[in-house]
Design a protein that fits this description.
Strand content of chain B: under 5%
Strand content of chain A: 15-25%
Helix content of chain B: over 70%
Radius of gyration of chain B: 14 Å
Shape of chain A: globular
Shape of chain B: globular
Helix content of chain A: 25-40%
Distance between the termini of chain B: 27 Å
Order of helices and strands of chain B: HHHHHHH
Largest sheet of chain A: 5 strands, mixed
Oligomer: heterodimer
Amino acid sequence: MTQFALRSLRIAGIQVVHETTDGSDGHQPWSAHCSKESAEWQIAPPVCWLSGGDRQVQEAAIVYCSDMSRADLVRSVLASLPTRTDSVPFPDHPLLLHGPDILASMDGALVAFFVLSRSMRQVIPDVVLSRLALPAETRFVLALSESFSVSEVDISFFDQVIVMADRENAIIPTVPTVQQDGAQLIESVRFFHHERFADAWAYTTGRWHRKRKTPGEPSSLYGEIAGRTSQYIDFHNGEFIFTPPSAASWRSIRPSLYSAATTAVRADYNLERGISGLAEISRLTSSGRAHLALHRGRLPSHAAAGTFDALKPFRAAAFAGFVTRGLEDFD
Amino acid sequence: MTYKQRVDTLRIIVDAHPIVRSSPKLSQIVGEMYRISASTKVPKSNGWLLSVLHTTRTLDTTLSEIVRYKGWPIQAPSLGRYLAALCTNGILNSSEKNAYNDKIVKKRNKYMHEAGAMPNQLEADGILSEMHTCLTIVLARV
């Protein structure tokens, strides 16, 4: 058990009472006796993923593996799921440009896994959009390798955390109770987010031309300035404007569109300030002092033509708040 | 992304949704989604027609079970009335309801009821992706 894993246990509020070594190298502690809120248990590999044992033990897991790529992490998590789990790696959700890495139906619960192969700053907007696009009861699990460090604030966007430290080691379930403030706060903006999506999609598809009734200022004006704009993205009066080069191919536009979407989500929900920023936006939107603004974008009408669901880029952009039109509509 | 990934994604979302899970029709709904996957092996228009058929049966039954679970009254079972009930109860707004009526109900009726009507890939793509979107939106909001 590595220092990072031990730190993760502490973040989860678990006290490691006693460690033992596996006897093979005599260095790495192999198991630990843990306690939390008067409950005590032994954690050691191999243990089945989220099955058997104490209910608290079932609630969360820490998997130890090291230096793994995103594909390795995904494969490792998939391999550790119970045999009767229905799962799909890299799911294709109609509203998401970049959703969870794995979606699984486990014991009647929907579980979305994010493997951390990027910075948390990049991942959190995907988590926020995914939480809003999936049913409210979905459990979100973060799988990270020990080379990544995460803060307690970042973890609060998830229901569980699993740490990958050694691909040959089995799964070591441990405690749950990371803070789940993120889930509750995101839930408080679900209505406003879907209301804006409905408007953005109606405008994009030309079905609605009425002016929106929007209380207060755009929520993005409350966000941090840093990182608001990037390539092909401008910011004006709370609205982002996405304008890729007219000759760009869809293949080259997609990363820019994704970047624009995450930039907007980060600003709309003040995610630069983490949970406290999201909490502020939740209060402001609920009290009618701020609204989620519509952003604007241009996409070539041939975007994703020839692939299944050719409208997905436009729809997913609308889910992030962008009203998009084909380039020819602007010229 | 492949069509199979989309269907697998929807099947998992539907299968794990608390309202659908409480339905006695859960196994029929999930079975219908496996038939969508199987229909991709049937070539060209026949395969697309089967995809539209099985997807619309999935959508119809899922929405019907949601409406029944919520106790929302409807005059007669039909996709149009389920959409109306979802609109009345604030799950969809009127613009969304009208859009799904135009893009799903009317278009799929043509292929379900008109002899010789066969969708090409582009037409099937439009109906299927709208049905997928409608399903995921409703399940995210109820």
